[in-house]
């Protein structure tokens, strides 16, 4: 007897469920400029690589008319596939089915694929497009979120976790992306907020659009919740694919190595930095001049732009870059840039990615706003993250390295493995102007020409301390190098630290200044 009838029956069942919320709901989704959950998965993963699980899962809710509702796949698609051959686990919420709302079975599907990702030690990608907790399912929905948050936390630092916000991500649902490593957003499509416009209107009487409250730009520029901003879903998928090439599958592996390539950028490094130390420049040009193929993949580009973070390759291997950006606020550390840098350093450390720090900054941002915003607590995160990290850590001081900033930006005192400085480096407790005003206060005040005396003292201080040679004489800087030697020195340092071993005392965990 032929099996044909069983196979045809299976196909019919599959086809029915794969329609999601049906034609009308799909039309609505498309009219909003959004792809469907299934289209998204297929566009992101390698062709023909997606294998779906739990297609036939159904909800078991009975209240508020739910007993009469069939929700295909319970509003979420889960499965496995590959990106450039790298295995990934994925889920995508289907807004066409009950607004992608999260009920018990929906949550169970997500936690099943999360457990699978953790057990298989492969990256997890979650595409969020949902109205949040399924209101009809009450506490079961909340339980579902709790189980997801728990798994996000346990998997943190073991497998890469990527969240993609392609629709609403409302209420407590936002905390899952917030617990993951990288959050991707798309202009006009992503909406992330704890309390929506309706509640705000009821409680506060204020009218605000979802876009202004928690659109992609808000999270990419202001809150820092988003790491990537794209203009379309396809651009967003290209960004995710590129990220996947830079990171390892799990914390026991290294990122895949690529064939080494020289930088494409042919401007000599020394021509990038202006002769006047007060003039700014774009530190990304320095990075592009030293990484393979001049290919720098920047993260959180629009947030706290006074620090630049991202991945590049050196000799074909992934390196994390942390660089002060003199173009923005002179590259100072403040609350946001400290958070941005500290989290990235911890990511690199967790996933065996060496860190190269490029330093040019006048210290922490002064002022009452920053003090009251907690610059002490936030700034401490940078010190903690660098000190805790055991991956190879290399610093190059390009120009200014003043005060706490000098220590914080991966100085040898926080156990950097290599510290290099350009001859233009100025390493001192503080800037020469401020220093002279304090320590020569009396001489300046009592001089016949205080301004001339001030200038003299500034110059005196500069000659004594604002150079790399005092630090080099004490061994705090391993080598003063020419700017054009930077790539070579970094390649060498990375090569010799390839089998670095560094231990920290055994403990349950540290207590970072969160
Ligand atoms: C059940 C929901 C739902 C939800 C949407 N739907 N959200 N069903 N529970 N949370 C359903 C709608 O009833 C509708 O069903 C379909 O999804 C599409 O929704 P629309 O409102 O028609 O779509 P749209 O106009 O695009 O608006 C989308 C929206 C809005 C902005 C997301 O639906 C909305 O505000 N939803 C509630 C968002 C929210 O406050 N969530 C927080 C829940 S509390 P039909 O059958 O008509 O197609 C929470 C706490 C979690 O999440 C705490 C965890 C710690």
The counted number of beta strands is: 16
**How confident is the prediction overall: mean pLDDT?**
95
- Identify the quaternary structure here: single chain
Assign an overall shape.
Answer: elongated
Task: Specify the structural class.
Answer: alpha/beta
Reading off the top of the CATH hierarchy, the class of the largest domain is best stated as Alpha Beta
Would you give the CATH topology of the largest domain?
2-enoyl-CoA Hydratase, Chain A, domain 1
Low-confidence stretches: none
Using the 3D structure, state the CATH architecture of the largest domain. Answer: Alpha-Beta Complex
Radius of gyration: 26 Å
- Could you give me the name of the CATH homologous superfamily of the largest domain? 2-enoyl-CoA Hydratase, Chain A, domain 1
- Portion of residues within helices: 25-40%
Helix count from the secondary structure assignment:
20
| Biggest sheet features | 8 strands, mixed
Strand content: 15-25%
């Amino acid at each position: 007897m032929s099996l044909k009838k069983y196979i045809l029956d299976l196909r019919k069942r599959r086809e029915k469920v794969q329609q999601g919320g049906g034609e009308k709901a799909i039309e609505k989704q498309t009219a909003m400029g959004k792809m469907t959950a299934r289209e998204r998965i297929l566009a992101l993963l390698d062709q023909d690589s997606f294998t779906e699980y739990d297609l036939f899962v159904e909800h078991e809710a009975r209240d508020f008319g739910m007993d009469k509702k069939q929700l295909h796949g319970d509003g979420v698609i889960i499965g496995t596939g590959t990106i450039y051959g790298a295995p990934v686990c994925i889920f995508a919420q289907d807004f066409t089915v009950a607004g992608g709302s999260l009920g018990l079975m929906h949550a169970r599907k997500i936690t099943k694929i999360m457990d699978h990702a953790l057990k298989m030690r492969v990256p997890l990608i979650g595409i969020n497009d949902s109205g949040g907790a399924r209101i009809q399912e009450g506490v079961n929905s909340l339980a579902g979120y709790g189980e997801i948050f728990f798994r996000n936390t346990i998997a943190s630092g073991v497998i890469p976790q990527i969240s993609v916000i392609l629709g609403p991500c409302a209420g407590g649902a936002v905390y899952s992306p917030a617990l993951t490593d990288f959050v991707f957003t798309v202009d006009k499509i992503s909406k992330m907020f704890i309390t929506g416009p309706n509640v705000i209107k009821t409680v506060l009487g204020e009218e605000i659009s979802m876009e202004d409250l928690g659109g992609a730009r808000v999270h990419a520029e202001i809150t820092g919740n988003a790491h990537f901003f794209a203009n379309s879903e396809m651009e967003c998928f290209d960004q995710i694919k590129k990220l996947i090439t830079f990171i390892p599958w799990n914390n026991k592996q290294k990122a895949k190595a690529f064939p080494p390539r020289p930088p494409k950028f042919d401007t000599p490094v020394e021509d990038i930095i202006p002769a006047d130390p007060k003039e700014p420049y774009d530190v990304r040009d320095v990075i592009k001049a030293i990484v393979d193929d001049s290919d720098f993949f920047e993260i959180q580009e629009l947030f706290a732009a006074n620090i630049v973070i991202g991945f590049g390759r050196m000799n074909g291997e992934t390196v994390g870059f942390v660089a002060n950006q003199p173009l923005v606020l002179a590259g100072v550390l403040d609350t946001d840039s400290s958070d941005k840098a500290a989290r990235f350093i911890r990511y690199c450390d967790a996933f065996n990615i060496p860190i190269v720090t490029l330093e040019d900054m006048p210290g922490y941002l002064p002022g009452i706003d920053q003090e009251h915003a907690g610059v002490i607590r936030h700034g401490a995160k940078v010190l903690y993250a660098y000190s805790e990290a055991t991956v190879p850590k290399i610093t190059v001081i390009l120009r200014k390295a003043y005060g706490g900033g000098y220590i914080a930006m991966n100085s040898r005192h926080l156990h950097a493995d290599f510290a290099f400085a350009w001859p233009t480096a100025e390493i001192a407790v503080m800037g020469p102007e401020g220093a002279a005003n304090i320590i020569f206060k009396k001489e300046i005040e009592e001089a016949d020409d205080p301004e001339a005396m001030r200038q003299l003292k500034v110059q005196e201080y500069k000659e004594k301390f604002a150079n790399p040679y005092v630090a080099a004489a004490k061994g705090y800087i391993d080598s003063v190098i020419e700017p054009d030697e930077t790539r070579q020195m970094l390649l060498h340092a990375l090569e010799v630290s390839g089998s670095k071993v560094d231990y920290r005392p055994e403990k349950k965990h540290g207590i970072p200044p969160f």
